[in-house]
Amino acid sequence: MGNSYYTYVEEHKLLIECFCGETEIKDVFELKNVIESHLNQVPKLNILVDIQKNSSKPSFKKIDDFVEFYLKSEFSLKIDRFAFVTDTPRQVANTMLIIEGIQNEVDIPFKIFSSVESAINWLRSDISIDRVKSILEDFKNTSVLE
Fold first, then answer.
1. Residue 134 CB: number of other CB atoms within 10 A?
2. Cβ–Cβ under 8 Å, residues 94 and 58
3. SS (H, E, C) the chain
4. To the nearest whole percent, how much of the chain has pLDDT over 90?
5. Domain limits at 31?
6. Residue 142 CB-half CA count within 13 A
7. How many domains does the chain have?
8. Is 67 a domain residue?
9. Average pLDDT of the chain?
10. CA pair distance 44, 46, nearest whole angstrom
């Protein structure tokens, strides 16, 4: 799952994902499958996805593949809110394409943010910002950024 990480903070019903460096679509699919198997008993949760340090340049085909993969997943039924944290215009544009593809099929609020604080506030989570930042920093320190 190269440069793809996650943790589930059970007491806050918050799934935190991080994609750093160059990430292949197969790595994203593999991570999503692992998450689904580990969290299959969780009834509802919010998701925070940090792609600020991701340097991938996905094609329209890869975005379409991700949307199709996501829509086939029963896991999407467990999601209350979904926040993306981005850093570059390219990340925002790619995320918007993903959101547009998914929102036509499911009724989940998605939103893009430029800061973790704003994302956590929108997710209505009472987890401390410092804890989230620490988790994300650990992921980023583990990854091999290119």
1. 11
2. yes
3. CCCEEEEEEHHHCEEEEEECECCCHHHHHHHHHHHHHHCCCCCCEEEEEECCCECCCCCHHHHHHHHHHHHHCHHHHHEEEEEEECCCHHHHHHHHHHHHHHHCCCCCCEEEECCHHHHHHHCCCCCCHHHHHHHHHHHHHHCCCC
4. 64
5. 22-42+58-71
6. 14
7. 1
8. yes
9. 90
10. 7
Q: How many CB atoms lie within 10 A of CB 8?
A: 16
21-36 residue pLDDT tens: 888 888 888 999 999 9
| Better pLDDT: 45 or 66 | 45
82: phi then psi, degrees, rounded to nearest 5 = -135, 115
**pLDDT of 7:** 96
In a domain, 32, yes or no: yes
Q: Tokens 């994203």 — which residue?
A: 28
Burial 65-75 (b: 16+ CB within 10 A, else e): bbbeebeeeeb
pLDDT per residue over 70-102, tens digit each?
888 888 889 999 999 999 999 999 999 999 999
